[in-house]
Amino acid sequence: MSSAETDKKSIGTSMGTSFACDELPLPASTHANAPPPPIVASAQPQQLGSDVTDPGPLSKLLPALLDGSQIQRSKLGQRLASLRSLRELWEAGDIRKVLLNLRQIDDTSVAADLFRSGILQSSSLDLEGASLALLALGPLFASMEEVTQLVAINAAASLLSNFGPLIHRNRSSVPDAVGVDLSAEARQQRCQACFAHFVEIRRSLDGLTATGTIAAAADKLRSQMHAILQI
Q1: pLDDT tens digit string along 12-48?
Q2: How far, in Å, CA of 127 to CA of 169, rounded?
Q3: How many whole angstroms separate alpha carbon 195 and alpha carbon 201?
Q4: What is the CA radius of gyration of the chain?
Q5: 110: helix, coil or strand?
Q6: What is the mean pLDDT of residues 103-118?
Q7: Runs of H (alpha helix) within the chain
Q8: Are 36 and 86 found together in one domain?
Q9: Residues 135 and 83 in one domain
């Protein structure tokens, strides 16, 4: 695969109630072997440091930021550790394991940061990875934070654009009556799993009560899901 450089974006922990969350762009080409963007642990209104792997700045800033709160310090420490472990897997090119670990971490802030960073733009993301990513979006849609809901909507739109037509074709295809095509059968099962996740996402969209930007993004995704998947 090509080793061309990709645009770098930062992953940060979502400690505030709002941050920039533009719709994820879909580049013409992506590179599976390109290293992930540097992870940046961020907090509103300032950043904790440019590299969470360097404990020096964090050791000085965390006490001041958290004002002696042991609980908050512990939570942020766990979040930083989760981001480091996900970064190591991403650097190794194991997107499937990144998404599996993301479910085990069960932290919507970490999940939102990962999706915002461009993980879905990796060309190594396949149907199985798409299914795992769609499953991971559930808690983000259920979040009370509108910015997190917008991350989920944009991520779902990206997955729909990349995999929706393939999912629709394979669900509509009739299996060959002669012989058994295991690869085709496995592909159809994964497409069916993705479709089921999109159905759940459609229900989540219908349950959103937000207005403005969130409502507009949700309406657009609903229209796209209907056009591509007839949901």
Answers
A1: 444 333 333 444 444 444 444 555 555 444 444 334 3
A2: 13
A3: 10
A4: 19
A5: helix
A6: 86
A7: 55-66, 70-91, 95-105, 108-116, 127-136, 138-141, 146-172, 182-207, 213-229
A8: yes
A9: no
